[in-house]
């Protein structure tokens, strides 16, 4: 593999896009979200005609009020300056629980009550109590299933991707994508090892990690990340930074991944050659890098492509799907991204779509550019995945096939 990297800023590089609607909304969420997440279930489960005995109502109210108080306190202690892992686990678990409870309180509070009313089943109190038990039952099932989904080794998703400019010598190139491993407060060293064993079984030519390696510094999460050093590829192992690296001393992660033998594509590219044909494999820092204040960190596509033959096909690694606008303008053939987690806990994907052009899977942008968005290999924060399964992705690149002769 030939290294033709460049990290020099190029004049005229496009500025980062202005803050999205989701970012503007996020300013207010810390104030209103905890109240809504706990108050709505409290009202639906206890105060909509159930007429529970007073001890039941009091105990239920106290329990939900404790969740409202403990969740932000635990998250602040776990993810704030103190970085207490046990507190983070409690806060994250309460966050996921409240989201599922809120969602199904709203949905079943309307749908079940309406169905029972239309069917004429029972009196108002019976219908209200049925709603409560339905919400609690569905929530318990989804949390148990979601926890198992989050902690398991992801299934492999295989996809053939045809690139119009890919030479025949590169046909069948096997690219494995992992992303958003999010090593964090829950120790997942064994999980990490099993993920890497699954990757190695795919016999990849190129293995890519598109960022959000962990939550926490490299020093704290080293044991969980260490199995990444065992990943094998016949050509290269490459990675780019994600936004979470910039919350946790990004340079430490750059140094650790280099130590583990991964090629950093920080606004640079390498050439992958096979069968007389060449593929440009490029990468950019996350779009949040420049605001981190770290010298030399920014999403810099012109620098990543500096020196590359413009006639060659380009595979680009960029953590966030929304970078695809710049990729399409530059004529990139295929962008690989993560970041979205596929929403992670339904129906959070609706909020993700306010910020990103794609949620998961393969999509086309412009006349040439394809974007593959992974749902992620791990999970962030709440240890649950509900209707958004994790994945390890095997992309088999295909060159155009000549038309069959008549």
Describe this structure in words.
Helices cover 40% and strands 16% of the residues. It has two domains: 23-150, no CATH class; 154-398, Purple Acid Phosphatase, chain A, domain 2 (4-Layer Sandwich), CATH 3.60.21. It has a seven-stranded mixed sheet with strand order 1-7-8-9-10-12-11. It has a six-stranded mixed sheet with strand order 2-13-3-4-5-6, covered by helices on one side. It has helices spanning 21-26, 29-46, 54-79, 85-119, 124-151, 189-201, 218-225, 250-259, 301-305, 324-329, 349-355; strands at 2-3, 155-162, 173-178, 206-209, 236-239, 263-264, 268-274, 277-283, 314-317, 334-337, 361-365, 369-373, 391-398. It is elongated. With 406 residues, the chain is α/β, with parallel strands linked by helices. β8, α9 (301-305) and β9 (314-317) form a beta-alpha-beta unit.
Write a compact overview of the structure shown.
With 406 residues, the protein is α/β, with parallel strands linked by helices.
List the helices and strands and how they pair.
Elements: E1 2-3, H1 21-26, H2 29-46, H3 54-79, H4 85-119, H5 124-151, E2 155-162, E3 173-178, H6 189-201, E4 206-209, H7 218-225, E5 236-239, H8 250-259, E6 263-264, E7 268-274, E8 277-283, H9 301-305, E9 314-317, H10 324-329, E10 334-337, H11 349-355, E11 361-365, E12 369-373, E13 391-398
Parallel strand pairs: 2-13, 3-4, 4-5, 5-6, 8-9, 9-10, 10-12
Antiparallel strand pairs: 1-7, 3-13, 7-8, 11-12
């Amino acid at each position: 593999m030939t290294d033709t990297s460049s990290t020099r800023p190029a004049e005229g590089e496009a500025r980062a896009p202005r803050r999205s609607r989701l970012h503007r909304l996020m300013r207010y969420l810390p104030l209103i979200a905890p109240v809504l997440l706990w108050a709505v279930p409290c009202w639906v489960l206890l105060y909509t005609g159930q007429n529970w005995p007073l001890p039941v109502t009091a105990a239920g109210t106290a329990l939900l009020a404790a969740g409202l108080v403990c969740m932000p306190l635990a998250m602040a202690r776990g993810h704030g300056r103190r970085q207490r892992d046990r507190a983070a686990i409690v806060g994250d678990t309460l966050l996921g629980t409240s989201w599922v409870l809120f969602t199904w309180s709203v949905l079943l509070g309307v749908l079940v009550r309406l169905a029972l009313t239309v069917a004429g089943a029972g009196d108002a109190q019976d219908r209200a109590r049925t709603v409560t038990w339905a919400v609690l039952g569905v929530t318990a099932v989804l949390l148990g299933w979601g926890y198992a989904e989050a902690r398991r080794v992801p299934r492999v998703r295989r996809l053939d991707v045809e690139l119009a400019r890919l030479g025949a010598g590169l046909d069948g190139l096997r690219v494995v994508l992992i992303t958003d491993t999010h090593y964090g407060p829950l120790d997942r060293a064994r999980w990490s090892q099993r993920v890497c064993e699954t990757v190695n079984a795919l016999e990849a030519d190129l293995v890519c990690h598109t960022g959000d390696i962990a939550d926490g510094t490299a020093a704290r999460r080293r044991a969980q990340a260490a199995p990444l050093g065992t990943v094998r590829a016949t050509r290269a192992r490459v990675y780019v930074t994600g936004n979470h690296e910039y919350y946790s001393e990004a340079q430490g992660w750059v140094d650790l991944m280099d130590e583990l033998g991964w090629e950093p594509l920080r606004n640079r590219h390498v050439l992958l050659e096979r069968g007389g044909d060449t593929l440009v494999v490029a990468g950019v820092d996350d779009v949040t890098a420049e605001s981190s204040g770290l010298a030399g960190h920014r999403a810099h596509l012109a620098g990543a492509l500096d020196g590359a033959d413009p006639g060659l096909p380009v595979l680009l690694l960029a953590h966030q799907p929304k970078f695809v606008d710049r990729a399409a303008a530059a004529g990139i053939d295929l962008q690989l991204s993560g970041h979205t987690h596929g929403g992670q806990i339904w129906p959070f994907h609706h909020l993700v779509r306010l910020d990103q052009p794609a949620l998961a899977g393969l999509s086309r942008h412009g006349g040439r550019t394809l974007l593959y968005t992974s749902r992620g290999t791990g999970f962030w924060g709440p240890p649950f995945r509900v209707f958004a399964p994790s994945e390890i992705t095997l992309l088999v690149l295909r060159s155009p096939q000549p038309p069959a002769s008549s």
